[in-house]
Amino acid sequence: MKAALIGAGQIARQHLGCLEGLPEVEVVGVCDLSPAAAQCAAERHRVPRWFTDHRQMLSELRPEVVHVTTPAPTHFRLAQDALQAGAHVVVEKPATATLEELETLLALAESRGRSLIEDYNYLFNRGPLEMRRRVDSGELGEVVHVEVTICLSIVGTEGFADPNAAHPALALRGGAIADFLPHLASMAHHFVGPHRRVRTSWTKRSRSVLPHDEFRAIVEAEHGTASLAFSGSAQPDAFWVRLYGTRMQATANLFETRVTVDGLRPGPKPLRPFLNGLVEARDVGRAAFETLLRKFKGGPGGYEGLYELLERSYRAFTRNRPPPVSLAQVREVNALVDALKPPVVDLPRTARTGSSA
Amino acid sequence: MRALVTGAGGFLGRHVVAVLRARKVTVRALLRPTARLEALGWSDEVEVFRGDLRASQDLEHAFEDVDVLVHLAAAVSGGEDAQFASTVVGTERLLEAMVHTGCRRVVLASSFSVYDWSAIEGVLDEDSPLEPVPALYQRDGYSIAKSWQERLVREACAAHGWDLTVLRPGFIWGRDHADLAALGLKVGPVRVVIAPLARMPMTHVENCADLFALATVDPRARGETFNVVDGHGERIWDFTGEYQRRTGERSARIPVPYRLAHSVVSLAFESVFRRNPKLPQILIPCRLESRLKPLRYTGRRARERLGWTPPLDLATCLRRTFEPLAPGPEA
Question: What is the CATH number of domain A122-305+336-340?
Answer without folding.
Answer: 3.30.360.10
